[in-house]
Automatic annotation (TrEMBL), chains A, B:
Protein name, UniProt field: LacI family transcriptional regulator
Keyword Transcription regulation included in the entry's annotation: yes
Segments forming domain HTH lacI-type: 7-61
The keyword Cytoplasm is assigned to this record: no
A Pfam family reported for this protein in Swiss-Prot or TrEMBL: Peripla_BP_1
Keywords, alphabetical: DNA-binding, Transcription, Transcription regulation
CDD domains cross-referenced by the UniProt entry: HTH_LacI (cd01392), PBP1_LacI_sugar_binding-like (cd06267)
UniProt xrefs under SUPFAM superfamilies: lambda repressor-like DNA-binding domains, Periplasmic binding protein-like I
SMART domains in the cross-refs: HTH_LACI
GO MF annotation, one: transcription cis-regulatory region binding
Amino acid sequence: MEVKKEVTIYDLAKTLNYSPSTISRALNNHKSISKKTIKLVKETAEKVGYRPNNLAAGLRNNKSKTIGILVPHLNRPFVSTLISGIEESARKAGYNVLISQSYDEAEIEIANARTLYDSRVSGLIVSLAMQTELYDHFKQFTDQGIPIVFVDRVPKTYNSYKVIIDNYTAGYKATKHLIQGGCKRIAHFAGSQHRNVYEDRKKGYVDALKEHNLPIDESLIIPFKTLSFEEGEKATKKLLKMEQPPDAIFSANDTAAVSAILCAKKMGFSVPEDLAIIGFNDDPISKIVEPALSTISHPALKMGKISAKRILEHEQKEQDDLLTEVSVLNTEVIARASTRPIN
Amino acid sequence: MEVKKEVTIYDLAKTLNYSPSTISRALNNHKSISKKTIKLVKETAEKVGYRPNNLAAGLRNNKSKTIGILVPHLNRPFVSTLISGIEESARKAGYNVLISQSYDEAEIEIANARTLYDSRVSGLIVSLAMQTELYDHFKQFTDQGIPIVFVDRVPKTYNSYKVIIDNYTAGYKATKHLIQGGCKRIAHFAGSQHRNVYEDRKKGYVDALKEHNLPIDESLIIPFKTLSFEEGEKATKKLLKMEQPPDAIFSANDTAAVSAILCAKKMGFSVPEDLAIIGFNDDPISKIVEPALSTISHPALKMGKISAKRILEHEQKEQDDLLTEVSVLNTEVIARASTRPIN
DNA sequence: TTGAAAAATGCAATCGGTTGCAAAACTAGA
DNA sequence: TCTAGTTTTGCAACCGATTGCATTTTTCAA
């Protein structure tokens, strides 16, 4: 197959009788190049089909105008929307977006971090795998002054940007919402307590119970591995077969919550009368299930945009030693039919 | 902020008293380097924290071991799963994945194609924007021998790899499924007829009716712009208010189909008795809605993996002039509760 | 021991932009 | 017209890895 020779700034230089430096500067609107020259260069570049080689520029500058993303799973509503937000902001600023998924495994996360580093990303946006507990694989970025934004699932201690929601308050609000509906025995579908998001949601749940003088019943707090549909069904079955079943469930995600609704209905319980249920995330399924699932909003798109912004801004900043900088977004209870109206 | 100096092959060369060429070859397991040297080089590289610079290698080779993806929207179940499949295969082969979304606008698609080209992707995987009709922006890739895989939404004529399902047959099967359930007045939610997927689904629908001697009623074929929930509601309302409303709907996607179920129920029709409904894609919501939505499977993950494979294989191939090479995947009717059992 | 073939390694150019500094060209006031 | 200052442009090194070809080293049969 014949491959057309690509046009480089050297070709442009020859054509226009300028030096490559001038061409390069003209294309980048360098202030020391006259407007006349800039115009001429750009027009010619357009005409002859010149295309910049990002690899060359990236090599010279040791960064690639690329944001790396490291998430557990790409095909989840929250994550794919988060990425959509990142992509939108990045693209507007002329940045590319490299993606990778860890499948919630620390080992893969580590490998992917390496690869993204090797591609000299300008910044990294990470949502941690379920079981990641060591953060050494992020040090390579920090050492090179490459900004990292942890989003949603963040490490407790690592020094960097973070974009999160207030999971504690969200958990508190969700639980309080159930209490205000008259629920007294509230179960909780808890995610991995290694991850801040699930840990905090649970804490909010516990504190809401305490504040309303409801007992904490450990048998009502179900530890989940992945908060999957199947796990949700199993847990619901178990709960509803108890001698004294709960009258409500606060699930740490929507998937498990929806499975609880379906399972409860199948077992003859009515939702929300016998069992009120509230989820977390406002996934698309939460609007579709019947009764529609009350849940907690999760501003994925916005979190994505802010994460990207942090990286892009970082380029401008004076690189003092990087301090932790946390953005906390608002969430709210979305009351639908799966919980009882507030008294 | 202090930035640690990065280790290059030159540093390794100095340390080990070899030339950079030998280091490079050793790291790449070149056959002309002794196993002893390879071992030594690799161990030292590991020890001193050497990290390859993909930009440098990419510049030299004029390609970046990166697959570019161009899709309409990232946060849709089909697309995000497709990408997940691409990412998985690409990663295994040591390739990175660059993403971009066109928001279904040809103009953005063109701009993104440029950017991906400028990053010297090794291959491009595209699902076309709704209104794209000119394909000039793909020529730059073809001219450079960069393989393009069109997936799902593909151009009719462009010469390249294609990974699709048989939309015609799928549309035919979906319609036939309704007919076999006893439906006689079957409406169709049709997508943009510029895109093969929607055009072919409609053709399958039309032919199924014809073959079963059912009349084609143009008033039952509703043209959609985006097949959104809102559009679906509106269309359903309109249909059910007709003097002689349809007894079934074949929707070209699940979103509109689900909205039809909900809308029909709200209007007092029972599904599937009064109105049978079948969708397309097997999105997560289709399992959740009640009655559960019958639909057509869409092997997103597999399509992603195959698309990536096409790109990766292409690298090996003798680059004869690229011919069109089409992979057609199987789909099947997933019968759930929103359609009537087959007689 | 010698010579030729085979194996291992090195030289130097190359990929395409970017940029500090020097130099040239231009402007304007004296 | 001359000079100092300003604007514009060029020189050349550099980023880090790859690779064709030449050279050195090793191997082994004669």
